[in-house]
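Bug: token stream looks shifted between consecutive jobs. Job 1:
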Amino acid sequence: MTIGYGFGGPWPISAGAPALPARVTGGNPSTQSTRSLNLFSPAKTERATLLARNGADFATIVVVMASNDHRAGNSRNASAQPSFGRGSGGGADPVRAASGTSAKDGAPVQSVDRAVTVLEILAQHGEAGVTEIAAELGVHKSTAFRLVGALERRGLVEQPGLRGKYQLGFGIIRLAGAMAAGLDLTQQSRRVCEDLAAELGETVNIAIPSGDMVVNIDQVRGASAVVTQNWIGRQNPLHSTSSGKVLLAHMRKSDQRRVLRAHLEEITPSTITDPEALRAELDEILERGFATAVEELEVGLNAVAAPVRGLSGEVVAAVSASGPSYRMEENKLESIGEIVLKAADEISTRMGHMPAA
């Protein structure tokens, strides 16, 4: 069996389980190599592929891929376990479950939902005992124990000691790492940017750092955009744009000091060129959560940007909305900033970032 880099790659590729399009950043599906690895069964792979195409969330797919195969009569508690068969094994169809069509009695769907909730509880609290998990789920302790036991057998949770506390296991790292390997920033952010451009009617860009510059890598124009300027590939100084200032604010202090010590070019009369004034604004950005630029790159152009975080929480990009100053007036930037910040958080979630509880 070979694996390819599709949804959450790598996934196995087999005749019964077509892979989704490659999503490794900068990758070419026709040139990417494959390697042999006996990871998941073809039936599970096919279900995961169908779940992804039907819009199922990553956590649901993780549980489906990691769940035990069900065989009638192989456990006296089998009815309490998620029933995801390999075709002839019976049980609920997870594709129907993910799309909102429950099984005959709804139990398999409920078990998946509860198992995912257990993982989320442990992710938020670090560790928890069966009694705490049962209380948060609103179920009997024996039900919580069976759920945790199933997740423990698959390596998704573990007990580090003898205190009866559980934490996320290394199986999560393996699955999450496979997911992260296939994440493409532009692909994950595209729908969010389209929605943001539609809501604001302005141009939306995704930008990443490039040395001491900021470069736009994707753009969506809103209905109100009157200029069809393409910003993709354009590099600008960090201090002169809202996206650049967001990235600068979240840089390592040593890198930030280096940028502030360098010459800050005056691109327009409004560009901030005083290092102390810029440092004060960077502190405000960290406190407020987003950055603004008022005619600092181009006269008559205003913008707002917010940070996009990756899997480990580091800021990897910025999403911005820009438009003419007569429409994106300075007194409106605060409210626009809140909208952009919400979109940035959604992209961050799609990139695997989980905010601290």
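Job 2, same session, no restart:
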Amino acid sequence: MNRRKHVQSWVPLLALGIAGGVGVGAACVALAAEPDASPAPEAAGAASGAVSVVPLRDGLHMLAVDGVNVVMQTGPDGVVLVDTGPAAGASALVQQVKQLTKQPIRFLIDTSADAALIGGNAAVAASGQDLATTDTFDALEVNGNTSKVDLPGEGATADIIARQGVLTQMLSEPGANYGSAALPRDSFTRREFNFFLNGTPIAVVALPAGHSASDAAVRFDRADVVAAGAVFDQTRFPVIDLANGGSIQGEIDALDQIANTLAYAHVPVLANSGATLVIPVRGPVSDEDDLVTYRDMVATVRDRIEYYIEHGQTLAQVRSEHPARGYVSRYGADSGSWTTNDFIDAVYNSLMAQRKGHHGAKQQQE
């Protein structure tokens, strides 16, 4: 639920609005396309518990918390964090923020309901301060002297912004048991949630159901930086969470939307400066070219699997065709929380569900 906040005369008003519709184009990827494989980049985070810092632009930093990228904006009005990383890294994240600025954490923005991205919500929010708790207004006393009047705030913790679906998933996730301090207080269902802080517009943009049904990206307009969320992971194939509404077509549509409406290429094309910085959920700082390369990889694997489905192959047969060939050394894994076969299975089941008209349905059994 969105709510109005009273703010000091020197603090820019938080303007909540709905952006107009934007067109999304999709590039066509040839089935035969298979670029040379290249080594997978190391995760941006260092050892467990450590937080690495990469300065970006105009008061923005990328903080890697146990491998998860957290985007931090600082300024005179306070700190905005996009995602908080896993719970185990929350204390280290808070300490790193305090080393970078004396301003309090005002807002957290959740780009999905993944525990690895929002596990630190409660602890990080508790270390911050809602903008409303420090609001003061000039009051004219009877004798003509001006004094400040403190207004009661809604809580001493930082505010959390997310799509309504994130809140719903957090409340319904089996075994999650999130406390109220970790839950979004400002949830939205419209296309964008816009506000103005530290002298720049900030847009939280709803994405198509790719990784999940509640994905979002965040654009910091003045700095020309986009936090892409879970749909863009430079360290592995994208996680398609079918149980929570994700789909392979939604994943591609989400990447298209970011590339076509939120990120901007170098101008002129041959210049190596001036492009939008795109921050993946894991991996190094990227740009639109990196994003489009990732999108084309996903579309190529999707096209191959769709071809095999059209020719009547089962999931086991599709796996034997190695539809992710050419990309495995860059994005694949044989073990861990998300393997190459996990990705292939998710694409296959998503396409089969789409064929049956049950977009995002539960996985079929092999």
